[in-house]
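User: These chains co-purify. Model them together.
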Amino acid sequence: ASCVQHRLVVRDASSLQLLQLYTCLDQIQYIEWSSDSLFILCALYKRGIVQVWSLEQPAWHCRIDEGSAGLVASCWSPDGRHILNTTEFHLRITVWSLCTKSVSYIKYPKACQQGVVFTKDGRYMAVAERRDCKDFISIFVCSNWQLLRHFDTETQDLSGIEWAPNGCVLAVWDTCLEYKVLLYSLDGRLLSSFRAYEWPLGVKSIAWSPSSQFLAIGSFDEKVRILNHVTWKKITELDHPATIASKKTIVYKEVEKSPAVDTERLSFPPTRELASSLFSTQSKYDISQVPVSLQYVKPVADRANPKVGVGMLAFSADNCFLATKNDNIPNAVWIWDIRKLKLSVVLEQLCTIQCFQWDPCQPRLAVCTGTSRVYLWSPAGCVVVQVPGEGDFQIVSLSWHSSGDSMVLLSKDNFCVCYLEREEV
Amino acid sequence: MGDWKTITVPVLSSDSKNIPSYTSERKISPPSMNSQVLRLSLPSSKNMHSFFSAFCTEENIEQSISYIDRELTTLGFPSIYAESKGKELNLISIINCMNELLVLQHKNLRAQEEVEMQHMKLGSDMDHLQNCYAKLKEQLELSKREIVGLQERDRQLQSKNRNLHQLLKNEKDEVQKLQNIISSRATQYNHDMKRKEREYNKLKERLHQLVMNKKDKKMAMEILNCVGRADGKRGAWRTDKTEARNEEEMFKVLLSDYEQRQKQLLLENAELKKVLQQMKKDIISLLPPQKQKPKEKSEDGLVMSDQEEDIGELNKENMWELSCETVREQLTNSIRKQWRMLKNHVEKLDNQVSRGHSGALNEKDVISREDHELETEKLELEIQQCKEMIKTQQQLLQQQLTCDDDTTLLLQDCYLLEERERLQEEWRLFREQKKNFEKERKSFTEAAIRLGLERKAFEEDRGAWLKHQFLTMTADCKSENATTPSAFLRSKYLVQIMFLHSSEPDIRLVKSASRQRKPPSVLSAPISAEPCQTSQYIAQNSVASEKPAADNMPNPWVESDDKEETE
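Assistant: Joint model of the two components:
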């Protein structure tokens, strides 16, 4: 599904054929599929309206108007029948039920990056709240929205919460002024708290490993600390230096190669393909010899939220690799082998990394840097894929299909779907 | 006596020449002559001449002789006068005195030489010592200067060190100060933040109230129709029961997670314990056993024996199944002890090797010890293998021995019995088959007889019918004109009849021939299937004498069958 201005376009994923077309009242800011893929919600933040469309019955419609409360965020509940709207200024979260037309409210939600999280199996929901300058967490049962637990956290200013994939542990981290990561069990007990250092800027990003065995914490000091789930103590620190000297690391460097133009075959006026190929530069990967020094960007010292530290973390689906991006070295993706806890590969690109995502089935990483190329890495090697087409297609973000066979590449105005062939065995 | 010396030298040197020529020039022995005579080299003959003439001349012979006599006597020599008062010279005494004087002169010369040698030596020694002294003085000077320089440097470095320490302290203080500043600022910020947040909360509350008050007309949900729940069930009321159930479910989830983790940890523990056990066994096997090493220290021996007992005990119990604290501790402690012993052993070996490298004798010992060890290990292995072999051989022997008495016969009997039974079985089957054959044969023969009779009847009928036809036809032909077609028909009928009667032996022969050629595969009638099978079966039970009989059996039987058929 994609939205264009005020229209919602639904296409088939394998053929991109147009299936449905819905029109909303105003420009759509956010769309989300329900968990059973039967409904799509379109949030119109400016109007404070959420419209829900059904795929099976195109004639069915539903509109939720928040009125003067305004709308800041909206999302589905895991059962696909409730919509949670966050009103403006984070006044409250309204839970609208599509089955019973009933409304519930959650007061004092916290205005932070990730305030509402659901467990992977969709049974429980954790909401971060703040009352009287203290942070609390409420755990609700998603089936009947009953409050299960309500406890306070020892954080100064909660910055985010995240469930472990096994649904039993909740990781809570503090604002970047305080390095503190707290781990709570499902019933609200504090299991452990982790603090690496006191004064410099703290946690920037957090990721759970898919088996819930590891919690990777990326911080502003350019290091990733990994905690294990048995003792909740740090097992290792992964550093991101600007110079890589280890011989066991493979560094792939993206190298531009300009295509050789056969001057005899130039025709006048030049054909379209020729024109595009002249101006588009090809690039490929080269293996650089260690030691390699990467491009290091010194952050501006006196600004808030400096571009320092490990800003992106992602575990691969088979729990074997961890991909990180150090914002100081914005052109490189670092891939760590979790089994050996060592750096295995560094991908050095020509432009700043915009987004990367692991394939949900295999250990394959797709990286985009804002150029019209998507980069794929797997333990077998890496490849540069050029998006064919006229003009520039600046890939800003990408997203894999849940089967791992295709992915969506998004630019500012367009999107395209990239299909990956399965290897014939 | 210097004067004396000066004069005697020239006299002695040219002895024979100068005895007559005496000079009285005793006074010409000035001190100047001393220096000249101190020279080791003898003066030249010219000087000698002058000396001799200087002392004794023709005028003062008597005086010089008396003088010489006086000198000699004062020196202790006998007088040169023959008598105490006379003027005659005692030549013998003169010669003796001269000889004595010569000897004395030689001695003196030698003494002088020695003294001069010593003098020279001392002089050179002194020079040497003076040089040494000078050098040492120089060295002393140098070292003094160095010391001074080094002291200076030391002072400088110390002062630098102090400065650096001071700087370090300053920096540390500054850091501490900054940290304090940061913490105080942080608390201040927190306080301010809290204040602002409270204000903000108040605003939010206000806003919330306003929003809630502005009646819900605007806030609505338009929905075309209610959607069923994803899982098809109806929504439940919120009651205490549901709350309790929620709690239960949550705890169940947590418990299952913990159980899973505990299982994993148990598995890990078990594996690790197994590994530790294995390691312990390996370490024990690596360590040399006590018997082979008489050279081992006694303490080790004692320790070993204790350890072996412990080991035996521990190994007997199934350690990995127990998981209580003491057992775990025992296991780890025992492994630690074993490891320490192994370490000691390895260190000892290292020492031995290093000692071996340094001394030749030790080498021999070391090598022999190592060789000894290796050899003893090899021998042990051999012994083990031999023992095992012996055991197995003993067992086999036992078997044989016991078998020779009764069991072998029994066994043999058993085998014979088995064979006999098998043979009996086969005989039984064979007889049964034979009976079956007989039955079948009988039935077949009956059938064949019947068939033959029927055929006969049929043929007779056919013949009758043909005759009838022929007769009718001839009757017709009589009425009509005799034509070739009727004659042809007639002849055809005749031919058929003839053929019937005449071709029987041919058919029979043909059939039997074909049968003989391929006995098992001709299946013209269902009758032939049975004999084929039986022939095959008999062929399989291969008793040579039976085979040709069997083969022969169906064929004549078939032939007879054919005969009966065709008749």
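Chain B touches chain A through 45 residues (CB under 8 Å).
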